[in-house]
Design a protein that fits this description.
- There is one protein chain.
- The chain is an alpha/beta fold.
- Helix content is about 30%, strand content about 15%.
- It is built from 25 helices and 28 strands.
- α3 packs parallel to α18 and α11 packs across α12.
- The chain is globular, with a radius of gyration of 26 Å.
- This is Biotin/methionine sulfoxide reductase.
C-alpha cells in the first residue's frame, strides 16, 4: 500500500520490477509507475553517515550544511556518538531545545510511521518542542473549527460521491476538481471513484463550473471561469452580493442555522466601508465580467448547487477567507445539509472527500505523552530557528519561540515543503545538531549532521488502513532491507537502549510483536463493540486484507440540519459563525470577525507585479507524491532536459521569445531556478504553473540563495504565514518573471550520492 494506492509488487529478489494495482480500483494512480527500481536506486542511503564538519568541530551552528562531505560509519560507532550528543543537549539545554517537528508524509503504514516513531522516541526521553497543524490545511485547520466546529469532519464525513452524482445539479468548484490529486490519500486507498462520479453527474444532466487559472483542473466538459489567481474571495463576494440584493438568499436558513449574517451583510452591501461588493466591484478585481457573475449567482440560487473549495485556495495569503466565504455562500443558498447541495472542501484535493468513512477507530502506534508543552505553527520553522525568544501571534495567543539546539527529523522533507529555501538554509545553519532519518539522499539529508539510513515500506511488514477506505491491508515486505538501512523503529530501539530507556520505548516488543499487538488490540475493541468480527492476526496476515463496513451515502452536516438543537456545531454559538466574536476580539488587521476581501501581497493586480509580472502556481505534482520518488520513471518522463516542466500561455511565451522545450530561468528577488518550458493554452494568460517536488539542486551548494538547476519552486515562494490567525503555509502562489536560459546547462546532481571522505581524513579538533 502506498499513499497513492494499493498494489502488488513483482520483484527480482532485491528490487521491484513491476507493480499491479488491484482489479477493484476504478482508476489506479499513474504514480505507481515510480515504484519499480526505487529500492536500489543510486540515491539510497547505504550506511549511517556523519557530516565531516561535525566530526571535526563538534556540535555547533554551521553554514557548511548542505555543502559538506560525509563520513560513512558502522552502526556500532554511529549510535553511541548520536546518543552522546542527545545526552549533552538534554543536560545542557533541556528537552524544549529539541525540535521533533518532523512534518511530512513519510510512507503509508500504521506502525512504521516515521513521525509517530520519532515522537514516541522523544517522549520517552522527556519530550520535545513540537509543531502543530499541517502544510495541507494550515488556514483551514484554524479557521474552520472556529466557524464550523470542526475541520476534519468536512473531509471524513463529507457528502459522498454517490450522493453528489445523484443529486447535484450545479457543481461550482473553486479550484476545480483536479483528478491528478485524487491519486493520493493519507494512509492509502483501495479505490479512486472521482472520475466516474463526475461522469455520472454529467450523464444525469448536472453541470460543472470550474473556477481555476488552469482549464485542466477539471477533466471533460466543464464551464471554465479563470479569475485572477488569489481573487476568488472577491468573486464569491460578488456572487453573494447578487443573492443578497436580489433577495435570492435563504433568510430562514440563515436565521436558524447561522449567526452574524447581519454583520456580514452590512459589509457585503457596503454599509460599513462604503464599498458594495457588487459584481462590478468583483469584476475589477477578478477580471470576470460582472454579467457572468450575476448570471452564475442566479443559476446557483435556482439549482441544487454544491459549492466546493480546493485546499489550494487556503494555502495562500489570507487563506482563511476562501473556505469561510465558501461556507457562507453555501449558507446563503440554504443548501447546507441537503443531499447534493451545501458546501464541500477538498474534492479534487485528496481522494478522501466523498469516500465513505469507517465507523470505528483504527489501530495506531501510541506516541506517549509529551512533557514539554512548547509548540509552533508548523510553517514557522525558519522563523523559530532564526528568532529564538522572538514573539509571534497565532490563533488569539502571543507566544515566544524556543531556543532549539537539536533538530530531529524523520519522515518529511522541508526542502520540499517549506517556502523560501534560501531563508530555510540560513535557518538550518543555526542549530547545533541536525539528525535526519531518510531512505534517500534528499536535500534535507544533505543538510544533516547525522544521517540515519531508513528502510522503505517495501522492505518491512506493516499494516495499513485509513479513515475513508474499507480495507485493512497486510503490507508484506517485498524485498530485504537495502544495504545497511534499518527500520526507524529498530534504530530508535537501539538508540533508546544507549540512552537507558529501551523498555519505555519498546515495551519489550519487536516490530513483529507490535504489529500483532496493535491488530489484536483493535480486533478485540471492535469485536466488543459488536460492529464486526475481524479474524485473528494470523488469519488476517495470510488472507492479506480485511474488509470493514463503511457509512455510505453521507451528506455533510445533515444531522445539524435535521436538528440544530440536538446536533449543534462545536462553535461558541452552536451554529455556523458567519461572524465570530472570538476572532473579532483578537483585533488582527489581517483576519477580522467575518469573511472579507484582503488584497494579496503577490498577485497580478498588485504593485509587485510591475517587477515580477507572472503569477506562478506551485501546485501538487501530477507525476509523483510531493518529492517522493522524483527519480521514478513517471516523474523523470515529464522532465525537459532533466528540468521540471513549467507551463506557460502561448502569448506570454511569444512575448518573451520562448519556445516549447526551452530551458528557462524563473526568478524573483528571493531566488531562481531552471525549468523546462511547456507552452500550453490551458492556462490563463500571465499565469505559469510549476509543480512542487523536484529535488532542490543548488548550482553552488555553499550559497544559500543559489539558483536551483532542477526546478524547485520553493526557492521563489515567500515564507509568510496566511495571517496572524492561522500562520499557515502560503506556498501555492508567487510572482515571478521568466527568461530564456542561454548559459551552459548545469548537470542535475540531486539524485546522486553526496561527496564522502574516509574516516582517516577527518582531523578532529
Ligand atoms: N510551494 C509549495 N510548497 C508546498 C505545497 C504547495 O502547495 N506549494 N504543498 C505543501 C503540502 S500540502 C504538503 S503536505 C507538503 C509535503 O511535504 P513532505 O510531506 O515533507 O514531502 P514528502 O516528499 O512526502 O516527504 C516525505 C519524506 O519522507 C521520506 N520517507 C518515506 N518513507 C520513510 C520512512 O519510512 N522513514 C523515513 N525516515 N522517511 C521516509 C521520503 O523519502 C521523503 O523524503 O509540501 C508542502 N509544500
Ligand atoms: N498527484 C498528487 N496528488 C496529491 C499530492 C501530490 O503530491 N501529488 N499531494 C496531496 C496533498 S498532501 C494535498 S494537501 C493535496 C493538496 O490539494 P490542493 O492544494 O487542492 O492541490 P493543488 O494541486 O496544489 O491545487 C489544486 C488546484 O488549485 C488551483 N488553484 C491554485 N490557485 C488558485 C486560485 O487562486 N484560484 C483558483 N480558483 N484556483 C487555484 C490550481 O490550478 C491547482 O491545480 O493534494 C494531494 N494530492
Ligand atoms: Mo498536503
Amino acid at each position: 500500500m502506498a499513499h497513492f494506492g494499493m498494489y502488488t509488487a513483482d520483484t527480482d529478489g532485491r528490487d521491484v520490477v513491476a507493480v499491479r494495482p488491484p482489479t477493484g480500483d476504478a482508476d489506479p494512480s499513474p504514480i505507481l509507475g515510480n515504484v519499480p527500481g526505487s529500492v536500489t536506486h543510486r540515491s539510497r542511503i547505504r550506511r549511517p553517515a556523519v557530516r565531516r564538519g561535525w566530526l571535526e568541530n563538534g556540535p555547533g551552528p554551521s553554514t557548511e550544511r548542505g555543502a559538506d562531505a560525509f563520513v560513512e560509519m558502522e552502526w556500532d560507532e554511529f549510535l553511541p556518538l548520536l546518543a552522546g550528543e542527545f545526552r549533552r543537549v538534554l543536560r545542557e539545554h533541556g528537552n524544549e531545545a529539541v525540535f521533533g517537528g518532523s512534518y511530512g508524509w513519510g510512507s503509508a503504514g500504521r506502525f512504521h510511521h516515521a513521525q509517530s516513531q520519532v515522537h514516541r522516541f522523544l517522549n520517552t526521553l522527556g519530550g520535545y518542542t513540537r509543531s502543530v497543524g499541517s502544510y495541507s490545511l494550515g488556514a483551514t485547520g484554524t479557521i474552520m473549527p472556529r466557524v464550523m466546529g470542526t475541520h476534519w469532519k468536512m473531509f471524513s464525513r463529507s457528502t459522498s460521491w454517490d450522493v453528489i452524482a445523484e443529486h447535484t445539479d450545479l457543481l461550482v468548484a473553486f479550484g476545480g476538481v483536479p483528478l491528478k490529486n485524487t491519486s493520493v490519500n493519507h494512509g492509502g486507498t483501495s479505490d479512486h471513484p472521482t472520475r466516474d462520479a463526475l461522469h455520472r453527474l454529467r450523464a444525469r444532466g448536472g453541470r460543472i463550473v470550474s473556477i481555476s487559472p488552469l482549464r485542466d483542473d477539471t477533466d471533460g466538459a466543464a464551464e471554465w471561469i479563470a479569475p485572477v489567481p488569489g481573487s476568488d474571495v472577491a468573486l464569491m463576494l460578488g456572487l453573494a452580493h447578487v443573492l443578497a440584493s436580489e433577495g435570492l438568499h435563504d433568510t430562514a436558513f440563515l436565521q436558524r442555522y447561522t449567526t452574524g449574517y447581519d454583520v456580514f451583510e452590512r459589509y457585503l452591501l457596503g454599509e460599513t466601508d462604503g464599498v458594495p461588493k457588487s459584481p462590478e466591484w468583483a469584476q475589477s478585481l477578478t477580471g470576470v465580467p460582472a454579467s457572468d457573475i450575476t448570471a452564475l449567482a442566479r443559476r446557483m440560487a435556482r439549482a441544487t448547487t454544491l459549492v466546493t473549495v480546493t485546499w489550494s485556495l487556503q494555502r495562500i495569503r489570507h487563506g482563511e477567507q476562501a473556505p469561510w466565504m465558501g461556507l457562507t455562500l453555501a449558507a446563503m443558498l440554504g443548501g447546507v445539509g441537503v443531499p447534493g447541495a451545501g458546501f464541500g472542501h477538498g474534492y479534487g484535493s485528496m481522494n478522501e472527500p466523498g469516500l465513505a468513512p469507517v465507523p470505528y477507530p483504527l489501530p495506531t502506534l501510541p506516541q506517549g505523552l509529551n512533557a514539554v508543552s512548547t509548540s509552533i505553527p508548523v510553517a514557522a520553522i525558519s522563523d523559530m530557528l532564526l528568532n529564538p525568544g522572538g514573539r509571534y501571534d497565532a490563533d488569539g495567543t502571543s507566544s515566544t519561540y524556543p531556543d532549539i539546539r537539536l533538530l530531529h527529523w524523520a519522515g518529511g522533507n522541508p526542502f520540499h515543503h517549506h517556502q523560501d529555501i534560501g531563508r530555510l538554509r540560513t535557518a538550518l545553519a543555526r542549530p547545533e545538531t541536525i539528525v535526519v532519518h531518510e531512505p534517500y539522499w534528499t536535500p534535507m539529508a544533505r543538510h544533516a549532521d547525522f544521517v540515519v539510513p531508513s528502510t522503505t515500506t517495501l522492505e518491512r511488514d506493516d499494516l495499513s488502513c485509513t479513515r475513508n477506505d474499507p480495507l485493512l491491508v497486510a503490507m508484506q515486505a517485498a524485498v530485504p532491507p537495502f544495504a545497511d538501512s534499518r527500520d526507524d523503529y529498530d534504530t530508535f530501539a537501539l538508540l533508546a537502549r544507549e540512552l537507558g530507556v529501551e523498555y519505555e520505548f519498546t515495551e519489550g516488543r519487536s516490530s513483529a510483536d507490535w504489529l500483532r499487538h496493535l491488530y489484536e488490540q483493535w480486533r478485540r475493541f471492535v469485536a466488543d463493540a459488536g460492529r464486526v468480527t475481524p479474524p485473528v492476526f494470523d488469519e488476517f496476515w495470510t488472507e492479506g486484507t480485511f474488509r470493514m463496513d463503511t457509512e455510505d451515502g453521507l451528506t455533510l452536516l445533515s444531522d445539524f440540519r435535521d436538528d440544530p438543537e440536538r446536533a449543534p456545531l462545536r462553535t461558541p454559538s452552536g451554529r455556523i459563525e458567519i461572524f465570530s466574536a472570538d476572532i473579532e476580539s483578537f483585533g488582527y488587521a489581517d483576519c477580522g470577525g467575518h469573511p472579507r476581501w484582503y488584497a494579496p501581497d503577490e498577485w497580478l493586480n498588485g504593485e509587485r507585479a510591475q517587477s515580477f509580472p507572472l503569477h506562478l502556481i506551485a501546485n501538487q505534482p501530477r507525476t509523483r507524491l510531493h518529492s517522493q520518488l522524483d527519480h521514478g520513471a513517471v516523474s523523470l518522463a515529464s522532465k525537459i532536459r532533466g528540468r521540471e516542466p513549467m507551463r506557460m500561455h502561448p502569448a506570454d511565451a511569444a512575448a518573451r521569445g520562448l519556445r516549447d522545450g526551452d530551458v528557462v530561468r524563473v526568478f524573483n528577488d528571493r531566488g531562481s531556478c531552471l525549468a523546462g518550458l511547456v507552452v500550453d493554452d490551458r492556462l490563463r494568460e500571465r499565469v505559469v504553473q510549476l509543480s512542487t517536488g523536484a529535488w532542490y539542486d543548488p548550482l553552488d551548494p555553499s550559497d544559500p540563495r543559489s539558483m536551483c538547476v532542477h526546478g524547485n519552486p520553493n526557492v521563489l515562494t515567500a515564507d509568510r504565514g496566511t495571517s496572524s490567525l492561522a500562520q499557515g503555509s502560503t506556498g501555492q502562489h508567487v510572482l515571478v518573471d521568466v527568461e530564456k536560459w542561454t548559459g551552459e546547462l548545469p548537470a542535475i546532481r540531486a539524485h546522486d550520492q553526496p561527496e564522502f571522505v574516509d574516516r582517516g581524513d577527518v582531523r578532529q579538533k
